[in-house]
Amino acid sequence: MNLYDPARTHGHRTPLPWCAGNPSVIEVRRPALESAAPTTAQAAKERGRSPHRNFRLLLVGETTSKLGTSVTSVLLPLVAVTTLHASPFVMGVLTAAAWLPWLVIGLPAGAWVDRLPARRVMLVCNAVSAAVFASVPAAWWLGALTIQHLLGAALLSGAASVFFSTAYSAYLPQLVPTDALMRRNAQLQGGDQAARVAGPGLGGLVAQTLGGVPGLLLDAGSFLVSSVCLLGIRPDGPRPAPAPRRPLGKEIAEGLRFVLGDRLVLAVTAFGAAVNLAMAGLQAVQIVFLVRTVGVGADTLGWLVACGGLGGVLGGLAAGRLAERLGSARALLTVQAAASPFGLLLALAAPGPRLAFFVLGSVVLFAGVVACNVVIVSFRQAYCPPELRGRVTATTLFLNYGTIPLGALLGGTLASLVGTRATMGAVATALVAAGGFLLVKPLRTLRDLPGAPAAEGR
Predict the structure, then answer these.
(1) Residues 263-320 pLDDT 10s
(2) What CA–CA distance (Å, rounded) separates 453 from 455?
(3) What percent of the chain has pLDDT over 90?
(4) Is residue 458 over pLDDT 50?
(5) Does residue 450 have a cis bond before it (omega within 30 degrees)?
(6) 3-class DSSP state for residue 240?
(7) What's the pLDDT tens digit per position in 39-49?
(8) Angle, to 10 degrees, between the axis of helix 53-78 and the axis of helix 298-326?
């Protein structure tokens, strides 16, 4: 789950009671006070330049890229189902393939990203992803497209996503002051979810006019737009000095120690992993459920899937206000408890008026998921020492995203055994149960998550 003011360093905070007696947690935060460098946004402000230009470029590039990805989220499964006649189990494998690289290279990716310029990593990943998605229409035009090709494309694009996501999460705090992280993350999530609203409808339209396979060129083009925007970002602050090279295993271990040794970080990471497990199962069978069980057409399919994006936009808009009014920790607990039960409505969908169950369930469920994600990502970015951001991000995403292949395979297997409707109900129940990870101490007793802007910006 990624399920995500002058910066205040971690060394200024008084350790919470649960940190007492855990020297590893305190020791890893203190160097941040000594080595903290001004962010790009702070340096731009000092030089009289707009600190918002770089963020706007990042927002435009990422929203465009997510629009292409959203179109592909409809077209790729549609190609697999209608052109290559994939079974529910194969659909689960296809979904799992995109996330499998997190299990293989997720942890070392964090250490590598901490050694390299984040923007350069992102540009290389965009180039790889554009080439991968352009290869699918090329193979189709040559009459050589197979399910194996789709699986290979999913694996390669998934590997690029591992490095891009890790670098991106470490790059944003360089552009944005700490007290603006919640707001900027909400804007990025809002752009992401707006793309999810427009993308499926656009994907359905493209499928009807151009066909599913040629439409994948839109995604390839969106990665190029993202790269142009990244190239337009002008770093104003000094580049951080590269960290001394040490054995890769030791660097990976530092990230693991921070995540597993900090109760708050561990709690929200376990929650994200559980949510992603259930959401992967849901998304692995959702298209098959709507097309084969409910019987919707390509045009209706796109708009139904877009309902989740609409809910995500609402969740992104509401996240900051809820965190300010309730406190970031209380907002996280409240949103999860209120929104997750609506996922149970998805399995009740049927032709006609009962499609409203799917619409309502998607809107509220995804609003909750995105609002929780904004709070969690902002907390992690503000709370984590800058020199560990790549490794901590990679560790949390490894644990979060590592459950996605398992969830997708379980969803596809369960759908083959008991049917898609029963599977939709089962994964929705698992989403409700995921909230149990947030009930541990000290999270359930806090008003605000430490280090998050809502906690420090008042």
Answers:
(1) 888 999 999 999 999 998 998 888 889 888 888 877 788 778 778 878 888 888 888 8
(2) 5
(3) 20
(4) no
(5) no
(6) coil
(7) 444 544 544 44
(8) 140
Query: What b/e readout covers 124-150, taking b as 16+ CB neighbours within 10 angstroms?
Result: bbbebbbebbbbbbeebeeeebebebb
Q: In this structure, what token pair is assigned to residue 76?
A: 């790729």
d(CA 325, CA 323): 6
What local confidence, expressed as pLDDT, does residue 11 receive? 34
Type of residue at 435:
G
Q: Structure tokens of 336?
A: 């999860």
What pLDDT score does 4 carry? 34
Q: Are 294 and 350 in contact (CB under 8 A)?
A: yes
- Cα dihedral sign for 410, 415, 420, 426? negative
Indicate the pLDDT class of residue 89, thresholds 50, 70 and 90: confident
Any idea how long the chain is? 458
The beta strands (E) that lie in 164-312 are given as none
Distance of CA 242 to the CA centre of its chain: 27
**106, 257, 320, 416 from 180: Cα distances, Å:** 28, 28, 10, 46
In the predicted structure, residue 29 carries a pLDDT above the cut 70? no
- Average pLDDT over the chain, rounded to whole? 78
Query: What's the token pair of residue 178?
Result: 């700490």
139 touches 213 (CB < 8 A): no
The closest of 274, 433, 444 to 341, measured between CA atoms, is: 433
Half-sphere exposure of 73 (CA within 13 A, CB side): 27
User: CA gyration radius for the chain?
Assistant: 21
